[in-house]
UniProtKB/TrEMBL annotation:
This is Thioredoxin family protein. Residues 48-131 form the Thioredoxin-like fold domain. It comes from Thetidibacter halocola. It comes from the Bacteria. InterPro entries: SoxW, Thioredoxin-like_fold, Thioredoxin-like_sf.
Amino acid sequence: MKTWIGAALAALIALPVWALEMGDDGLYKQPWIRDTFKDLREDLAEANTEGKRLVLFVEQRGCIYCHKMHEEVFSDPEVSQFIDDHFFVVRINLHGDTEIVDTDGESMSEKAATRKWHVLFTPNILFLPEEVPEDQSAVESAVAVMPGAFSKGTTLDMFTWVQEKRYELDGDEDFQRYHARRIQERNANRPESEKKFD
């Protein structure tokens, strides 16, 4: 009896404290990813009604970089809460067959849309403005595109930069300069051994 209890306890201790939940499609679930009909014009209108920004997450089954983002970045409460508070997230499957309607009104499968948007790898995050001209696709109207996996600092800075509409500001602080300034601000109060450059 003691051996069985000891083995069960050892197995329980070996489990990760936080486990990613995955859907039947092989894509990770997050509470802030919306399950919509994927008519991006309707999603944009709903995002605006909620006072949020529409964001398209392009991911695929088995993507190690998507896994990294979900496990190391999106699992962070600060990042997750910021996304939930300010963004309306719709996931697009790079190889998916679900029909979507692009912001220009064209209807096609997810995989056809990602080809149209020239998405070659995942994750790929497209940030849309509040208003999109009727003749522009999602990628044509995007105010920013975040291609690839990044650290918490870079990811949070990109979401913040978009949420604050810094892409509209005149001046010399593009995203790279904004991000560099934010790194300096985060490091200002850290001991030398704890400084990060993400």
